[in-house]
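Write out the 3D structure for:
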Amino acid sequence: MSIYTRSDKFNFILQPYREILKLKNPNLLKKEIRLLAKNNGAYIRLFKLSGQRYEVVFSRDPGQLLGESIWHYFHKPNYLIFCEALPNEKHFILVIVIDNRVLLDAKLTKAQLLEELQSISEIEKEFMVQLIGNVPIALNKDANQFQLKSSQIAKLSRLQDSVIERLLVDEKLQLLPLEQAIKWEKIGDFRKLSAFIVFFLLVLIGAGYYFWDEDDANIKVQIVDPYQLYKKNLMTPAPNLEINNIMNVLIKLNTLPGWTVTKLNFTRTNGFYNVRSVGGKVNYFYEWARANHLTTKFNTNGLQVNLPMKLMPRPLPDKIYDAEHTVTILVDKLMSILPGKALQISTIKRQNHFQEINIKIIFNEISPDVVKLIALQLQDMPVTFESMTAAQKNGMLAGSISLKVLGK
């Protein structure tokens, strides 16, 4: 297994360990998953298959599954060959899907790529073939290229622009910590109880009510973690990833011929872009949005493109930092990018055992790439994303980002 880090610092997982397990007994399945995780990694994802089976994917690192992300991007064809040349053109990303399952997703040299492709040359199935950049794959004989059989091709497309750079963050394809992944899939979460169990519970409840001592009602024991709210707030998605996701979609929208983004508005849970036609056809835009898994609707400003903020939550924090010290570090980092009066810092708001400080980053005439650079400064910091609003003109943004710093 390996990690591919995209230009926006988002991590994709390659070559994870995959295992097909059968649901004979929920507890037995959980036990098998926990045992496999010891040797293959404690970040996992479960995909339900037919016939009471699960495909379980294991990795030692968190991130989003690259093979499944590409498969979903092309609307999950039964058979897929995807190959993209990386910027240096010395390595390639190869994804092979057979019978609706990712068989291979790997970063390969040219020699390794040709060897892997040779292994599927005898499979008599029709593949969707997607080739991006200068890849050594052809339909005609060439000593330096792999020749695809025409009988293996259902559809072949050659593209120049990177697909990997355009992939959206998808919480359904992100690896989760072991127990969180099991809980997400609700293995063994059976809600039907037998009539006997229901009757027995009713009897217990009735007996408890009959023998209830009113004096006992006055005795209440409650153990509360004083930092519960602090932990809950910092288990939201990382703010740098949230802002990067917003900018990645904006950059994609900016490449659409005949359309321009005029405004964007986001909160912690969702947001939208206002898009106006400058000669573009609505039907083309709808097809593009559907292909990129985005929803659209008309409003008074033209078209509105909606983007839910669904990213993987951060791990449970094990430390509480000094909030004012964090603000000092953050100010130093941001002022190197946005000099002048670009920051508004609120007074401290105390929350029992921790405190909050609101920060607003104000910007004018900056590009989406500079916003991504701002996001990079927030990496691994005890900060939450609250909102972002901006207007765009000629590809430049003016607006603000609201953050919250938490600590002691």
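The chain has ten helices and 23 strands.
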